[in-house]
Amino acid sequence: MDHRTVAVPPSDRLSLDTLKLLSNKWEPAILLTLLHHDTLRFNELESALPAISANMLTAALKSLADDGLLQRQTISEIPQQVEYELTDAGRQLGPVFSELTAWGETHLETPTPTAVIADYDDRLTELFAEWVADDFTVTVVNTAGELRDCLAESPELVIFNGDLWDQPVSTFESHCPTTTRRVLLVGDRPDLSIAAWPCDDMLRKPIRKEPFVATATAQTDQIGQQKALRDRDRVNAKRTLLESFYSSSTLRNHEHTASLYNEPTANTSE
Predict the structure, then answer these.
(1) How far apart are CA 47 and CA 179, in angstroms?
(2) Residue 247: pLDDT above 90?
């Protein structure tokens, strides 16, 4: 479209030019992601946008850089490592996205977040699903294979029993998208090994409805949280739960939990 042929004053045609910058499928998603995360590397952007291919991401980043909305900075030559961040012009689009959100809340149907609830006890999964059915589109699963299949669909939230997972804990991260918030269900007296799970919060069984619903809601509200803050909150969640069962000295000196006291993110100050 030649915007000069639109029968509105030239000053108003700028809005069409602005929308043109946001018309690509992936470029607005990249802008919004960087508005939330400040600076990200290529692989971190890939993780934050699970459906994008490397080629599409490369092309979108180049387009945004050409438009002056994004800049890349080389932080290491060998191996080559590059970080991407918004320019001042890119950051100034923040209020535009906020206005679009406000308009959407008024005129569009608010999407219902998706949640996966996974436990080998089907009675529990059905009960938990009933508790959050008003606020989430819920899928319940009772096997590790079903859980892996559901994680591939990039749900907003997964609440899962670690005992259900039939592979090493280290493999969970490769199956669970970065964008998915994770809540680990643990037993009445959790083992120290739970500290290895890449989860955002923990719930100890037996669980009452109120804290279960509150935790689910709080986690979806945190989608898009900056990585440093997310890491800090993960450490604090694990420490809080484990310190209700074990002494600080035990946790500081155990191989599974010592890192919770070495990480700078354990500081609760902003």
Answers:
(1) 8
(2) yes
Q: Could you give the CA distance from residue 210 to residue 42 in angstroms, rounded to a whole number?
A: 39
**pLDDT exceeds 70 at position 44:** yes
How would residue 1 be classed by pLDDT, with cut points 50, 70 and 90?
Answer: low
- Within 8 A by CB and 6+ apart from 206, the residues are 188
Cα–chain-centroid distance for residue 32?
13
Q: What is the CATH number of the domain that holds 144?
A: 3.40.50.2300
Query: Which residues form the domain of 26?
Result: 3-107
Examine the fold and report which residue of 79, 107, 135 is the final residue of a domain before the chain moves on. 107
| pLDDT tops 60 at residue 267 | no
Q: State the virtual CA torsion across 194, 269, 37, 15 in degrees, nearest 10.
A: 140
Predicted confidence at residue 7, as pLDDT, reads: 66
Which CATH number do you get for residue 74? 1.10.10.10
